Task: inverse folding
């Protein structure tokens, strides 16, 4: 038997369940997604569940269950079930689906904190941290930067300077699995019942970090490649694990690219500390590119805003606008198609 409150079950989720037509059935949380089924943690234990046809064919792919989702299921065997409903999501981490302009993919749902993991070697990339942070803030998830492999030689001055424009908005932890004492502050930030998703590129040590926090080998790991100097990819799916006496941890496969799936460019203005400068621009609709009287450009010219930060802001804003426009156009087409379908039904009835 599992105590689902340890996995994040709450009174609010109970109230949401009461709105479902299937409120009399069992509920559980998706711990992993496979190609044809879902692993679900429930009070009955761990089950393998499949979707009803209505869910599988009646919803877009990003609305299908992802790791962390709370679902309602009908058991039909000792360790099998059928998912009949999905509770409304909150704090869901998305990313733009590879090769698309506006399609998005759900990474993890009902997330409280996101550990943005970077290693203090050649993998360190502040621009990548910014990308993850934008998407995390989009869903009001608390971002935390975790820098691994601090036992290696690195320039603390360079790292702190690179993160200066972000560190005031989130904690930054320097860790090494070879020095357990460095993990203590990180462990204290994980509260029982909270859900933490680990995101980052391949080789930064997400799985090793989770194993160390759990004090057991939960996920497979591999050594860094001597040829490329990069970690070998080990995680192949998004998977949830319960940390003893603490929160829920979700490991995710490393990603080379993390496309933005946000339609709120305003988040960027606040995140990059551009808002204070922007409020002093001559024009209220200033794009901060080449307009006269732009306080943001002035801040770059007088050294108050780093050029690399400004350029990253423009790049991510452009990507966000592109996703927003594509999403708007897609919804417009869907509404038009639905209207034509409805009109066709009315003609047929006549």
Result:
């Amino acid at each position: 038997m599992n105590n689902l409150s340890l996995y994040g079950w709450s009174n609010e989720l109970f109230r949401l369940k009461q709105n479902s037509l299937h409120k009399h059935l069992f509920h559980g949380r998706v711990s992993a997604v496979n190609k044809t089924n879902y692993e679900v943690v429930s009070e009955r234990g761990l089950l393998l569940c499949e979707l009803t046809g209505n869910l599988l064919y009646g919803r877009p792919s990003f609305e299908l269950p992802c790791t962390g989702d709370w679902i309602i299921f009908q058991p039909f065997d000792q360790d099998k079930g059928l998912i009949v409903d999905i509770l409304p999501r909150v704090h869901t981490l998305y990313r733009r689906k590879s090769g698309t302009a506006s399609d998005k993919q759900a990474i993890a749902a009902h997330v409280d904190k996101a550990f943005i993991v970077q290693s203090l070697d050649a993998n360190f990339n502040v621009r990548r941290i910014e990308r993850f942070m934008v998407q995390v803030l989009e869903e009001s998830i608390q971002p935390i930067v975790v820098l691994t492999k601090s036992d290696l030689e690195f320039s603390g001055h360079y790292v702190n300077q690179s993160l200066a424009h972000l560190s005031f908005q989130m904690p930054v932890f320097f860790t090494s699995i070879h020095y357990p004492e460095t993990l203590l502050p990180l462990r204290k930030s994980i509260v029982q019942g909270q859900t933490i998703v680990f995101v980052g590129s391949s080789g930064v040590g997400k799985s090793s970090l989770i194993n160390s926090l759990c004090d057991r080998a939960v996920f497979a790991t591999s050594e860094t490649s001597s040829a490329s100097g990069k970690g070998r990819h080990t995680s192949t799916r998004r998977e949830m694990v319960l940390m003893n006496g603490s929160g829920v941890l979700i490991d995710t496969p490393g990603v080379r690219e993390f496309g933005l799936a946000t339609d709120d460019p305003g988040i960027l203005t606040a995140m990059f500390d551009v808002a204070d400068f922007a409020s002093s621009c001559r024009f209220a609709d200033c794009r901060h590119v080449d307009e006269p009287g732009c306080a943001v450009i002035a801040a770059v010219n007088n050294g108050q805003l780093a050029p690399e930060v400004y350029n990253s802001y423009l790049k991510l804003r452009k990507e966000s606008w592109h996703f927003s426009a594509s999403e708007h156009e897609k919804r417009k087409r869907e509404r038009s198609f639905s209207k034509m379908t409805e009109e066709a039904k009315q003609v047929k009835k006549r």
Remarks:
- Residues 266-344 form a domain with the Ribonucleotide Reductase Protein R1; domain 1 fold (CATH 1.10.40.50).
- DSSP finds eleven helices and 13 strands in the chain.
- The chain has three domains: 4-86, 93-251, 266-344.
